[in-house]
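User: Reviewer 2 asked us to show a designed sequence for the structure in our supplementary figure. I'm pasting the structure tokens here. Could you produce the per-position amino acids so we can include them in the response letter?
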């Protein structure tokens, strides 16, 4: 690769890093959101940035609402939309519909072992995710990908470090500008060399 190709790859990498940081900042108030980390590498094609999920968990915030659920440990809730599509999420802000089914703010049903999780009046959800009514288990929250405990009355906050992401935005912008100057300098040098050769001829 020549100098312009390397500098161009650095510009693309800086733009990718900027996109990752701005997306993380945009979700700084999204409960259960997990940030992405920008991992860089030198390859035969120049500089590359690859987004990697941040596996760290956010802090728990007490809400006192019985159908707000937080996962302590690895794992995700499963929610199902009306069209049948199932999505993994750690945002446990749920409410009961008129049938007692727990739903998120998008209207997706939280799944239990037997389909949409129904929580009758007087039932509670314990730390094992069991729906208990008069001491009897009637269903259980479906947690995939881990053995997390379930905390009722809490919400997991996003694991985004807002200050760190702002620093990443500034660093990415400066990296892009530096690489852009390198491209311009190399291009200017090449044009000057071409003009000098033409005059000599």
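Assistant: Here is a per-position design you can include in the supplement:
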């Amino acid at each position: 690769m020549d100098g312009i190709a390397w500098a161009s790859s650095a510009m693309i990498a800086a733009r990718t890093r900027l996109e990752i940081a701005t997306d993380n900042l945009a979700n700084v108030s999204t409960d259960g959101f997990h940030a992405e980390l920008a991992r860089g590498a030198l390859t035969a094609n120049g500089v590359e940035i690859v987004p990697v999920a941040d596996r760290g968990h956010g802090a728990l915030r007490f809400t006192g609402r019985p159908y707000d659920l937080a996962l302590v440990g690895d794992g995700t809730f499963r929610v199902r939309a009306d069209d049948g599509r199932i999505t993994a999420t750690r945002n446990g802000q749920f409410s009961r519909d008129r049938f007692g089914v727990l739903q998120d703010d998008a209207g997706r049903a939280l799944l239990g072992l037997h389909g949409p999780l129904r929580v009758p009046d007087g039932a509670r959800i314990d730390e094992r995710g069991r729906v208990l009514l008069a001491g009897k288990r009637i269903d259980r929250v479906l947690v995939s990908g881990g053995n997390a405990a379930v905390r009722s009355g809490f919400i997991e906050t996003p694991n985004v470090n807002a200050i760190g992401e702002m620093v990443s935005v500034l660093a990415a912008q400066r990296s892009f500008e530096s690489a852009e100057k390198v491209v311009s300098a190399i291009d200017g040098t090449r044009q000057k060399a071409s003009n000098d050769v033409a005059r000599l001829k």
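For the response letter, you might also mention the following. The chain has a mean pLDDT of 90. The first strand starts at residue 36 and ends at 43.
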